[in-house]
Amino acid sequence: MKKLLVVAIIIILAVLAFYNNNQSKKGSLDQIPKVGFSAPNFSLAALDKQTYGIAGERDKPVIINFWASWCGPCRQEAPDLKAVYEKYQDKLDFYAINMTSNDDLESAELFVKEFDFQFPILLDEKGAVSDQYQVISIPTTYFIGTDGVIKHKIIGATDRGSFEQYVKELVR
After folding, report:
1. Cα-Cα-Cα-Cα dihedral of 131, 121, 74, 129, to 10°?
2. Looking at the structure, do residues 58 and 91 belong to the same domain, yes or no?
3. What digits encode the pLDDT tens for the residues 104-139?
4. Domain, as residue range, for 15
């Protein structure tokens, strides 16, 4: 009976050690991309040859939208993103992050031209930022306040009214 208890305790400790090790690989709680937590820092090159990123507090709120040219829902929401950006561009930063690791640059450039995007198009060529933000479905959009904290997250396409409501909350 004592041996069984010792084996059970060892198994429990091993499971806990494994769980804690996996959690530490994912980063601390304030690095997990969830509403109410700090947005993970990143820096990416863009189609305009500039580098953009997120790093804590900032002057304007920012929206980051993960997308790919082959994504039907991304195509569906593109006109709404453009319209909302044009309306609020002076009050916020907007970064459209092309998941270039799962797309091709030529198709992404054609998509941007087709929809006449005027906001920065960042290129996640290695997939590191989409992994960091745990993007499992696209489009995925994060709304980040001036304090660097994620205020809202949308997985999948949304309508212009819902998207604009989240923007209004950011730019108050």
Report:
1. 0
2. yes
3. 999 999 999 999 999 999 999 999 999 999 999 999
4. 1-28
